[in-house]
Amino acid sequence: MTPYDASSPGSTIAPARPALVDGFGRTVSYLRVSVTDRCDLRCVYCMAEHMTFLPKAQVLSLEELDQIASAFVGMGVRKLRLTGGEPLVRKGIMTLIERLSRHLASGALDELTLTTNGTRLAQHAPELAGLGIRRLNVSIDTLRPELFTRLTRGGDLSKVLAGVEAAQAAGLAVKINTVALKADNAGEIPELIAWAHGRDMDLTLIETMPLGETGEDRTDQYLSLDRVRRELESYWTLTDLPLSTGGPARYVQIEETGGRLGLITPLSHNFCEACNRVRLTCTGVLHSCLGQEDEADLRAVLRGGGGPVALEEAIRAAIDAKPKGHDFVIARGAAPALARHMSRTGG
Ligand code: SAM
Ligand code: SF4
């Protein structure tokens, strides 16, 4: 058995090695893993209508995903988020989750979680809960069935709502992610917040980010969350919460609804000082910053025959070079800041 024989449920991680600390003194404790670039939806801000997906050979196998994620856990990462594309369309995803859940059982990992579009949640929620998943993020941009179908280019809102219900029934805490879209859901944001808070779910609003060609002009959709906040404050009482997740979200409590609202504002505010996260694409490329072109090819290390030491060295070198911050700009007619789609990098 190699040290990375992930097939053994009892395989353990070597005792704590030095934590992953970047060149600016930030400790990396959170890894987001895109397990597939594929998706059963085609959200207008995320994908082009006719996407060309990657050949399977380029995508990490379940075992490779486990090896890399587990190497990070061995170096002190405490939180793993599986994303995509749509993680629940990846064949064998439940096997991967089951394997990774050994790190929850051993105490090496605090949290294993997913960001999902919810279309397949109804069928998977009980098993996810059984494997130790405690929380999920589900993306919903509108509660209007027709608009949902248009924004996702074909999705069925009722399936997603059934997924949310099933997740809650299985005891999973659900947070709703909503991309703020000037032309489409701006007027519906208070309703979405009231709906989520009424069902004991936090909601996080996200500004559109210029990642990958989608065939749409993003300046038509970009809505500053500063503006949204000012509007919400005209009728609700928003109290800033000190809660920091080391990520781009700031949180407020809405006194009238009793729920929490997160605001992810990569464009109107810089959130990089406290950044604790890195991202692995489904092809094994490690991006230490969502908004820069920096990358380290971990698949090449694995497929080139590199063992655990080579993998660890490659990861540490990439973290050491983590950029100070991003410089996203949305300008009319401008090309996307980065050519890669969010679905490949993992949102
Ligand atoms: N398919 C899953 C889902 O939709 O939740 C997981 C992957 S998706 C890329 C993760 C999150 O990124 C979703 O909440 C989605 O709305 C968001 N997203 C995708 N493209 C985006 C963009 N260009 N700007 C901002 N958020 C984006
Ligand atoms: Fe698929 Fe999620 Fe992108 Fe929508 S946001 S197209 S659900 S990956």
Strand order of the largest sheet: 7-8-9-6-5-4-3-2-1-10-11-12
CATH superfamily: Aldolase class I
Main sheet: strands, sense, barrel = 12 strands, mixed
CATH topology: TIM Barrel
Specify the number of helices: 11
Helix content: 25-40%
Low-confidence stretches: 1-15
Number-wise, the strands total: 12
Percentage of residues in DSSP E strands = 15-25%
Per CATH, the class reads Alpha Beta
Q: Ligands in the structure?
A: S-adenosylmethionine, iron/sulfur cluster
Mean pLDDT: 88
N to C succession of SSEs: EHEHHEHEHHEHEHEEEEEEHHH
The dominant shape is globular
Question: How much is the radius of gyration in Å?
Answer: 19 Å
When the domains are counted, the total is: 1
> Structural class of the helices, strands and pairings?
alpha/beta
CATH architecture: Alpha-Beta Barrel
* Cα end-to-end separation: 34 Å
